[in-house]
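Hello,

Our lab assistant flagged a job as stuck in the queue for most of the afternoon. It eventually completed. Since we weren't sure the result was trustworthy after the delay, we are filing this so someone can double-check. Below is the sequence as submitted and the structure that was eventually returned. Let us know if re-running is recommended.
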Amino acid sequence: MNQYKKFKEEFESIVGKSNIFIDEPMKKHISFKVGGPADLLVIPTEIDQVKKCISICKENCIPYYIIGNGSNLLVRDGGIRGAVIKLCKLNSITVEGDSITVGGGASLTNVSNVALKNNLGGFEFACGIPGSVGGAVTMNAGAYNGEVAQVIESAKVIDKQGNIKVLDKNHLELGYRMSAIQKYGYIVLEVVFRLHNEQYDHIKDRIVNLNRRRREKQPLEYPSAGSTFKRPQGYFAAKLIEDTGLKGVSVGGAQVSEKHSGFIVNRENATAKDILNLIDVVQSKVKNKFGVDLHTEVRIIGEEK
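-- returned structure --
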């Protein structure tokens, strides 16, 4: 029974009727295309609305989860009790000189395209990463020798007490797939990136080349959450998985990609349980063969069915 739908009107008064959903299937909101229903799904369109929605949750002891584009997320089949606050509509992008100010819900692809149009280089590494800016800062996302830490200047966040603060690069504590955002439970509202002026054609060539390499090497034809596992110290997760003989191995509708062993894909109507069981198989077999612990890069939330 959904005990939180009684708060629907209270959220509606903040975000409007079109931005609040009851018993919403999370498979419609995450790139894996799996997951049970969220009791409430709320989509704020302004920073002040985010603050107010969090206040309602805290005042009424409603558990809440913040998501962006859902591209690095796995929701279990039982769904999510409480509220999911989805920041996808905090997606403004403005350019001033060599800096770009971006809403936390903006897609990395859109930011990359705006940078290109304004002859700003340095963001090409992110052109094909399917996530949002907020998620990218939280994870210090990177690819092809680039990462968020190289281009970020500051981030506006909400802390656990509901205070809005601006953190400069040093205070973001960015490391490999980690940040102060994770460490202290902050929520990214807005980010300033500092890029550099460069010829349009040079930037465009790099974007075309990186997108070609992604299409050739990554299983973009199937739903996934990108790289499933973090890179272990001194190893590459995909090579460990492949050398364990797990390339192409399936559990239910989930499969270790035949194109790139670092990806688990939803090959054929997988459930979240299929994916989780396959993750367990991979972790266990790699540990037994190489003595290496693989930790998931994908964030896993929700309840078992």
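-- support follow-up --
The delay was a queue issue, not a problem with the job. The result is valid. The domain at 219-301 is CATH 3.90.78.10 (Uridine Diphospho-n-acetylenolpyruvylglucosamine Reductase; domain 1). The radius of gyration is 20 Å.
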